[in-house]
User: Fold these one by one.
Assistant:
Number 1:
Amino acid sequence: MTTNAQYLDQLMASLNTDTIYLQQAFDYYHQQYLGNEWAQQFVADSALISAELKQHPSAGLCDRTLGLKLPKRKTLEGGAIRGSLQRQGLLLPTGGERFRGCIVFPCTDGQGQIISAIGYRYARRIRAWQQEIIRWSKPSIDDYFRSGLSLVDELIYGKALH
């Protein structure tokens, strides 16, 4: 039986533009992967990537082109999309992509919503400051509420909640 909280989460997820933008970003990564034989060969040959992930149906390639396909940040639509992806942690505050230079494997929940992903760098040379494996989790609705309440409190009282 579905509880009220579960129903609300499902309803919010289906109406949430953040969820839509996130899905579109991972769909774009997947299309880039399907069109790149080198990336597919990298996955097949990599000792780091498990056999289970090698068979992942939604593997993606983050090749730094997503930002070029999105509307400019100064437009209403571009600001909304980029802001959403930044709030979710997929885009960095600088505008760069979290999974830049990675083969990405998203993980979904029971409703098919992306909740996390793991990325493996495919560069031949990985710099000392770069992580070879990147993990990301979608912020929960509670995280958004806490962040929003903290901002409201800061605006009203001039201090942040801890």
Note: The beta strands are 60-62, 102-108, 114-121, 133-137.
Number 2:
Amino acid sequence: MRLGKDLTDKPIITVNDGRHMGKVKDIYLDRNLQEMTGIYLGREGLFRRKDNFIPRASVVVFGVDAILIANADAITDSKETKIEDWVRLGDLIGRNIDTPGGTHLGTVGDVILDTAGRVLGFSLGRVLVDGPIAEQRAIAREVVIDNGHEDGVMTIDLLKAERVTITAESDLVPSNNDEDNPAEGG
């Protein structure tokens, strides 16, 4: 497991010739917040501004010190690929998290990814409640009811969130607070 923020500022190196292609500025997630779709490199151009990114499929290795891509052709721009349905992590951080009844639980602090780029859950930036969520400071992806794209507020199933703990590579287990209830999904 790793946080999305752990990828920022990592150098991007080509495998075929070892060239430094820039640094990760942010990451993109799919609209459903289920997987990473790309790496944001930044914006360039004076008159024709374009966003440069690397699609997730073009990444060879997410290393500890660097991200490796096959070659420089992996870098593309927003004019060549439709990224309107993608969400930048920077836009997701700080999003409010509520229950369906409107109880404010906290805010998104980061995304938790597995080694394949799948979203396992979200770390919390601010926690406004006591209990298992405050202790874990994270919620599993599977407890999200509404991503919050329309109103800017993520809605979660609180009871399920208190039962499910993120442990490793998409393994979700019951938290210690509710050992009699098995985790749902996986």
Note: Helices lie at 89-92, 132-136, 158-163.
Number 3:
Amino acid sequence: LAAASSLVFDRHASVIVTLIGADQSLTMATMRQLSMGANRAVLGEEIIQFAVAEPLGGARWRLSGLWRGRGGTEAAIAGHVTGEVFVLLDGTGTLLNPELVGTVPGSVIAAIGLGDAEPVTAPIRLRGIGLRPLAPVHGSCRILANGDRAISWVRRARGAWLWSDGVDVPLNEQSEAYDVTFGTASATTARWDLTTPGLTLSATQVAALLSTNPTGRFAIRQRGDRAASLPLDVALI
């Protein structure tokens, strides 16, 4: 599945999936039904929604009319490969006790039926996604009249999927905190601990950053009670 934007309805891309049996089926959904959560699925590490499900014969289906990067999975939009796992999130799953599942990396879930000789195992996908805040959005860097730079962003929150006009998104954390770094993937030049969604740097500070790391960018993470968000990438202009 090709990369796309998580901000617009994708009318062009499609993906072919194979269900576990020819007796399984998928259904279509209207835009209203999609907005209410219909046809959600995990594809690789990305959560998608699809409006059109076209049977191709056997257990193969073509999905199109896509909403991408749902549930805070924008970072997985560009990383798809052939043969990824497809799981329909239709609400029929079994809720597992998180205390029993634990947090050990690499853990798997085993299931066995009454007539089965051996259990079936599966890795835990998207582990921790419900514990960390969503990545901030609408990052910008503005040049002020005096040459300073004003970097700003908008926070998102765990479990806050709807935007209400005229009010800020709920924090859903004990306190508001951000970890902002400047640098590259291999070298961090500077770091700031902030409690508000903004950072102003003087022209002198900007010059010092660029002299040390001319290709550096800002990475902005919201710190939650139990984990930090994925980074929002902002260029320094």
Note: The chain has a mean pLDDT of 91.
